[in-house]
């Protein structure tokens, strides 16, 4: 058996870093600014411990562009490095000064670095990298380190008056886009917007007022252009923030959003993992269009990604806001998540917090919760369909609305209608309308029978949601108001008798078969109440739901017409007497067609030439 050490060819390291380590060249700025933040925070930590003496001064990071020299400089006045530290941290790939610092000072938590590779991202855009640095330690000499993206480097002493580090990138020809002010400012805005140390990028004009009253004047001055907010709202305690603070931060996150959020949840946990953040509930209305890439993921205030599907359940991607956790496992380039048990626990925690917050809002002010339901409803239903634990909590405050605009939690509504809407199988039938205007006739019939009708008008979510409730609750069934005749919507043991004999029934059936042609419909003679409509159009619940489900799955059903049933009320006077007693065949057919078209009109299904013919016939009869 042989043992040995695997050899690593250093000349191959830089091409690997440049081509494969980071998914996007623009990441270099995030990495180098993060290192500068660490340098500042390390100095603060040493000062708090009394190891670094004297005034820290105005700690900040500067980004400088010299288009003539083709350089980008990332400057900090933080901890700096000695010559020995330069050799240790810059000449050894994957040796992290941040990790070493955290091992020494275990109670420090605001250090960003981890793998010791971020500095080398500079070579993705630079032909050579120059580092000028001076340590905080008294008597330290300043040094310059230069490398051209290969294992060779130069190191020499230089004159430098101030503490800190300048990382100077001599930009390669194929990366000169990064010498543009707008390009760099865009990257700083994207990746560094909430880093905890002020970041200056040039200067900007600011107008100040001087004097008072009529002598008041305005003057424009140049001030530092600080592009970040070092103390964002999610890092503060909820007790220290007002509602207006939360709204202001929402506008800071989404400056082009016109609508204010409905409400928000402040995430603040230290155990068993560290997690901070604010999740906002936007106004969704009646749409299930997912607002993806609206939740931003940070690690120690460094932007990681706005694709958070691994840590946030899919239904929560409808929310907006920020999540920040140093305990979220990231890949080496810190560009995306790596799955582990922590991710699942954090995801479960966020789901629980959202569910509990909604429950709290419902219990605290039910009227206010109901007023927001048009925006909350689609979110809650989607969550119940997506997550079992969310369903268990949300069933207590998921609302349904009746035609009178009253809201009820589902279980409360079931108890309300159970006495009048329980069928012969002991199931409570929940009747609903999805288009109240076109289903007016059926709705009025339900009212005449003393039934209540719900509004379920979110087609993309309500079908699956009703099926889920039928399965979960077991004792309820949803039927659309036009899925059957009024006497069959809720099946009872007692049924009216048909006044037609078999010969008369056959005669009526044959007549309407000649009228209802060329459509996906079948004619059926039924015994309804004499007060019910003479002809009723119904859309069987099972077939209609199946078609809706297939449409949701992306199946193209344009060529498949709606399946419906034409129910002729054999007990209505116009059918039992007028039609049967009419001896003129043409007039009998004309009346049957008129009644059929009237039923189509009540369903909103009469259009074009048929509608014109119906109108003409109606006027003639008048």
TrEMBL record:
<dbReference type="InterPro" id="IPR037196">
    <property type="entry name" value="HSP90_C"/>
</dbReference>
<dbReference type="InterPro" id="IPR019805">
    <property type="entry name" value="Heat_shock_protein_90_CS"/>
</dbReference>
<keyword id="KW-0067">ATP-binding</keyword>
<feature type="binding site">
    <location>
        <position position="31"/>
    </location>
    <ligand>
        <name>ATP</name>
    </ligand>
</feature>
<keyword id="KW-0547">Nucleotide-binding</keyword>
<dbReference type="InterPro" id="IPR036890">
    <property type="entry name" value="HATPase_C_sf"/>
</dbReference>
<dbReference type="GO" id="GO:0051082">
    <property type="term" value="F:unfolded protein binding"/>
</dbReference>
<keyword id="KW-0346">Stress response</keyword>
<dbReference type="InterPro" id="IPR003594">
    <property type="entry name" value="HATPase_dom"/>
</dbReference>
<dbReference type="GO" id="GO:0140662">
    <property type="term" value="F:ATP-dependent protein folding chaperone"/>
</dbReference>
<dbReference type="Pfam" id="PF13589">
    <property type="entry name" value="HATPase_c_3"/>
</dbReference>
<feature type="binding site">
    <location>
        <position position="35"/>
    </location>
    <ligand>
        <name>ATP</name>
    </ligand>
</feature>
<dbReference type="GO" id="GO:0005524">
    <property type="term" value="F:ATP binding"/>
</dbReference>
<comment type="similarity">
    <text>Belongs to the heat shock protein 90 family.</text>
</comment>
<keyword id="KW-0963">Cytoplasm</keyword>
<feature type="binding site">
    <location>
        <position position="165"/>
    </location>
    <ligand>
        <name>ATP</name>
    </ligand>
</feature>
<dbReference type="InterPro" id="IPR020575">
    <property type="entry name" value="Hsp90_N"/>
</dbReference>
<dbReference type="GO" id="GO:0016887">
    <property type="term" value="F:ATP hydrolysis activity"/>
</dbReference>
<feature type="domain" description="Histidine kinase/HSP90-like ATPase">
    <location>
        <begin position="24"/>
        <end position="175"/>
    </location>
</feature>
<feature type="binding site">
    <location>
        <position position="76"/>
    </location>
    <ligand>
        <name>ATP</name>
    </ligand>
</feature>
<protein>
    <recommendedName>
        <fullName>Chaperone protein HtpG</fullName>
    </recommendedName>
</protein>
<dbReference type="InterPro" id="IPR001404">
    <property type="entry name" value="Hsp90_fam"/>
</dbReference>
<dbReference type="InterPro" id="IPR020568">
    <property type="entry name" value="Ribosomal_Su5_D2-typ_SF"/>
</dbReference>
<feature type="binding site">
    <location>
        <position position="334"/>
    </location>
    <ligand>
        <name>ATP</name>
    </ligand>
</feature>
<feature type="binding site">
    <location>
        <position position="81"/>
    </location>
    <ligand>
        <name>ATP</name>
    </ligand>
</feature>
<keyword id="KW-0143">Chaperone</keyword>
<dbReference type="Pfam" id="PF00183">
    <property type="entry name" value="HSP90"/>
</dbReference>
């Amino acid at each position: 058996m042989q043992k040995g050490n695997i050899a690593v060819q250093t000349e191959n390291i830089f091409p690997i870093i440049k081509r494969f380590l980071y998914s996007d060249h623009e990441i270099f700025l995030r990495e180098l600014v993060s290192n500068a933040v660490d340098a500042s925070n390390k100095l603060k930590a040493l000062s708090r411990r009394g190891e670094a003496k004297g005034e820290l001064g105005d700690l900040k990071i500067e980004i400088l562009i010299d288009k003539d020299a083709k350089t980008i400089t990332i400057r900090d006045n933080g901890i700096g490095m000695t010559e020995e530290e330069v050799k240790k941290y810059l000449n050894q790939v994957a040796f992290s000064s941040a990790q070493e610092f955290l091992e020494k000072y275990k109670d420090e938590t605001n250090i960003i670095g981890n793998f010791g590779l971020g500095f080398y991202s500079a070579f993705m855009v630079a032909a050579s990298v120059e580092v000028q640095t001076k340590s905080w330690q008294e008597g330290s000499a300043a040094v310059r380190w230069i490398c051209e993206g290969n294992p060779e480097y130069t190191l020499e002493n230089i004159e430098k008056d101030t503490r800190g580090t300048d990382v100077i990138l001599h930009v390669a020809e194929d990366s000169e886009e990064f010498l543009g002010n707008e390009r760099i400012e865009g990257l700083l805005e994207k990746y560094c917007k909430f880093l905890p140390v002020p970041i200056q990028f040039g200067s900007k004009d600011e107008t100040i007022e001087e004097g008072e009253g009529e002598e008041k004047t305005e003057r424009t001055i140049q001030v530092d252009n600080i592009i970040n907010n070092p103390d964002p709202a999610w890092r503060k305690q909820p007790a220290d923030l007002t509602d207006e603070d939360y709204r202001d931060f929402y506008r800071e996150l989404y400056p082009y959003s016109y609508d204010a959020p409905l409400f928000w949840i402040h995430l603040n946990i230290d155990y068993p993992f560290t997690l901070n953040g604010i999740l906002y509930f936007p106004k969704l209305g009646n749409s299930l269009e997912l607002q993806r890439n609206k939740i931003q993921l940070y690690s120690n205030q460094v932007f990681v990604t706005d694709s958070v599907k691994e840590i946030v359940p899919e239904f929560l991607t409808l929310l907006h806001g920020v999540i920040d956790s140093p305990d979220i496992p990231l890949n080496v380039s810190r560009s995306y998540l790596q799955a582990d048990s922590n991710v699942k626990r954090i995801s479960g925690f966020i789901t629980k917090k959202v569910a509990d917050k909604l429950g709290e809002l419902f219990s605290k002010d039910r009227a206010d919760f109901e007023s927001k339901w048009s925006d909350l409803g689609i979110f809650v239903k989607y969550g119940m369909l997506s997550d079992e634990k969310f369903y268990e909590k949300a069933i207590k405050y998921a609302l349904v609305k009746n035609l009178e605009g009253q809201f009820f939690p589902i279980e409360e509504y079931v108890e309300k209608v159970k006495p009048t809407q329980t069928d012969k199988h002991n199931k409570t039938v929940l009747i609903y309308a999805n288009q109240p205007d076109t289903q007016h006739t059926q709705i009025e019939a339900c009212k005449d029978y003393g039934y209540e009708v719900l509004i379920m008008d979110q087609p993309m979510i309500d079908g699956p949601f009703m099926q889920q409730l039928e399965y979960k609750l077991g004792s309820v069934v949803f039927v659309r108001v036009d899925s059957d005749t009024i006497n069959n919507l809720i099946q009872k043991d007692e049924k009216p008798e048909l006044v037609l004999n078999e010969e008369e029934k056959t005669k009526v059936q044959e007549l309407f078969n000649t009228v209802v042609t060329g459509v996906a419909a079948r004619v059926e003679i039924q015994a309804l109440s004499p007060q019910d409509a003479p002809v009723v159009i119904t859309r069987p619940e099972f077939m209609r739901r199946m078609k809706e489900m297939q449409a949701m799955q992306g199946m193209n059903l344009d060529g498949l017409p709606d399946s419906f049933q034409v129910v002729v009320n054999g007990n209505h006077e116009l059918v039992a007497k007028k039609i049967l007693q009419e001896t003129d065949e043409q007039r009998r057919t004309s009346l049957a067609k008129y009644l059929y078209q009237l039923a189509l009109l009540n369903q909103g299904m009469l259009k074009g030439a048929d509608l014109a013919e119906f109108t003409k016939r109606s006027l003639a009869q008048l």
